[in-house]
Design goal:
It is a single chain. The protein is of the alpha/beta class. The chain has helices spanning 15-27, 32-38, 42-45, 64-76, 79-87, 121-139, 164-172, 191-198, 218-235, 241-244, 252-258, 284-290, 292-311, 318-332, 350-362, 394-399, 421-438, 442-447, 476-497, 508-522, 533-545; strands at residues 47-50, 53-56, 114-115, 118-119, 153-157, 182-186, 206-211, 245-249, 265-267, 337-342, 380-382, 406-411, 466-471. Strands 1-2-13-12-10-11 form a six-stranded mixed β-sheet, sandwiched between helices. A five-stranded parallel β-sheet has the order 6-5-7-8-9, with helices on both faces. Helix 7 links the parallel strand 5 (153-157) and strand 6. It is globular. The structure holds glucose-6-phosphate. Glucose-6-phosphate binds next to loops.
Length: 547
């Protein structure tokens, strides 16, 4: 920022924020129950659809006025301009001086997005085409390992953004995958992860995809070295590396240094953040599993949501509404967490994926002007698939003292019919959102014949906000739409809070300290330690145990 740039006021100082604070006071006595009773059109008015997604916001503590005030706020902070800046490649990741162009990863072949004088779309499609050819060759058996055997197991080695996306999406789309291929995802530096993953695999039939944007990440390189040793233990010939290792990275030099031929490298670009990269070459393992056509369907789903985000009016815009309603609870109702509850076993890893997307992006306390933010930013995001959660933590959502706005995600038809399971699954999902919104009053409990002493315990206060997201079924297209929905939700929120959703300096300190402590752990018993007393004691215990 130059000294002549106008200073953007903190969002809390805007009149639109104050208007929301006053509206919150007025809403204090409203209940979802009353809002529904007062307006028979409510469900319809607060439901928005786009392509395959239908999102019902009506079971939230909002009115038309709330949405109006929230969208006024979004306009006041310049959200439409920020969206345009992102899609046109402006360097909005100001702390890393980069464009933020994950949307270019799913641009159509005939689109054009120019960054520093270069149209990046042809490069994106060149990599996608190479990935497609490679995936085809694994799937049809024309690519063989060092001893001529076809590849039957693929191990993705990566962590964070180079793991969570492909691992989540592979599980989500397992029904569309080639079941003859065994897919594994190794991320943790805990040796147990790779040790368990490699059990039962035949080195002659195993391909490793080492996925690392920087190719300097300790966990990934340690796992990749272990994988290389495992392979060479049995195949003995260094030349085997070329047939069993490929890399996904932006850093050709480091890839070559590791010993992987850069001809076997699939590139991406510094304008793709790790947690926004599952639709880049980072998705190679997914593409091998589901094939290039289904991967392309997934990209179409992403693109459909991008178009919606860019063109729909703010008050009918799914990511904008999801983001703004999240801010309504986070900042005006003091909700500290938000749950994501997919009623789909295939989406088992989706909450973990979103945890990184949301919390690494918006877990910031310094704004774009370099000021400490005044008020809350990113909410804690968590969840589990239903119905499992119902038998565990749902008690607290129903009757606890905290407000936990929850997104329920479900499908009208199952990917594969298994008896009446799907009907029961969805009956549970709909029942939960109904119970959370409308609860059960003391009168209703007493009317049902419950003893007076126990009755208070059986009351459900209701008025617990939920958003229901439905799709026809879980397809690659729907998954793409869903991921892009949350990507743009995160961007909407970051824009309102005035923070940079695309850096992650908070993960750096731990990395630096871990490298230093690794040296301390391997030093001799008497080597000096320069840490606090607690950390030094832990290091000594470790040294003693590993003497
Ligand atoms: C994501 C983060 C982080 C990153 C990992 C792996 O946005 O930057 O999760 O993806 O640290 O980094 P590499 O891909 O460079 O190994």
């Amino acid at each position: 920022m130059s000294t002549t740039d106008p200073v953007t006021p903190p969002v809390q100082e805007r009149p639109e924020w104050e208007a929301l604070a006053q509206h919150r006071e007025a809403m204090a006595s409203e209940t979802i129950r009353d809002l529904f009773a007062a307006d028979p059109q409510r469900a319809e008015a607060l439901t928005v659809d786009d392509n395959d997604l239908v999102v019902d916001f009506s079971k939230n503590i909002v009115t038309g006025e709330t949405i109006g005030l929230l969208t006024d706020l979004a306009r006041a902070v310049g959200l439409p301009q920020r969206i345009d800046d992102m899609f046109t490649g402006k360097p909005i990741n100001t702390t890393e001086h980069r464009s933020v162009l994950h949307v270019a990863l799913r641009a159509s072949r005939d689109d054009s997005i120019v960054v520093d004088g270069t149209d990046v779309v042809p490069e994106v499609h060149e990599v996608l085409d190479r990935m497609g050819d490679f995936a085809d060759s694994i799937r049809d058996g024309s690519f063989t390992g060092h001893t001529g055997k076809r590849i039957r197991s693929v191990v993705n080695i990566g962590i964070g953004g180079s793991d969570l996306g492909p691992a989540m999406a592979f599980e989500a789309l397992a029904a569309y995958s080639d079941r003859d291929l065994t897919m594994k995802f190794v991320s943790n530096v805990d040796g147990a992860d790779i040790d368990e993953a490699l059990r039962g695999l035949d080195p002659q039939e195993t391909l490793f995809i080492v996925c690392s944007k920087t190719f300097t990440t300790l966990e990934t390189l340690t796992n990749a070295r272990t994988a290389r040793d495992w392979l060479l233990d049995s195949l003995t010939d260094e030349a085997a590396i070329g047939k069993h290792f490929v890399a996904v990275s932006t850093n050709a030099e480091k890839v070559a240094e590791f010993g992987i031929d850069t001809a076997n490298m699939f590139g991406f670009w510094d304008w793709v953040g790790g947690r926004y990269s599952m639709d880049s070459a980072v998705g190679l393992s997914l593409m091998v599993a589901i094939g290039r056509d289904q991967f392309s369907d997934m990209l179409s789903g992403f693109r459909a949501m991008d178009t919606h985000f860019r063109t729909a009016p703010l008050d009918r815009n799914l990511p904008v509404l999801l983001g703004l309603i999240g801010i309504w609870y986070n900042n005006f109702w003091n909700a500290e967490t938000q749950a994501v509850l997919p009623y789909s076993q295939y989406l088992n890893r989706f909450p973990a994926y979103l945890q990184q997307l949301e919390m690494e992006s918006n877990g910031k306390s310094v704004d774009l002007e370099g000021r400490t933010v005044d008020g809350q930013t990113g909410a804690i995001s968590w969840g589990q698939p239903g119905t499992n959660g119902q038998h565990a933590f749902f008690q607290l959502i129903h009757q606890g003292t905290k407000m936990i706005p929850s997104d329920f995600i479900g499908y009208l038809t199952p990917v594969r019919e298994v008896g009446d399971h799907h009907l029961l699954l969805m009956a549970n999902m709909f029942a939960q959102t109904e119970a959370l919104a409308f609860g059960k009053t003391l009168d209703e409990v007493l009317e049902s014949g419950v003893d007076v002493d126990v009755a208070p315990h059986r009351v459900f206060p209701g008025n617990r906000p939920t958003t229901t997201i439905l799709a026809p079924t879980l397809t690659p297209f729907v998954l793409g739409q869903l991921v892009a929905l949350y990507e743009h939700k995160v961007f909407t929120q970051g824009t309102v809070w005035g923070i940079n959703s695309f850096d992650q300096w908070g993960v750096e300190l731990g990395k630096v300290l871990a490298t230093r402590i690794a040296d301390d752990l391997s030093a001799g018993d008497d080597a000096d330690l320069d840490h606090d007393a607690s950390t030094s004691a832990a290091i000594r215990r470790f040294r003693e145990a590993n003497r």
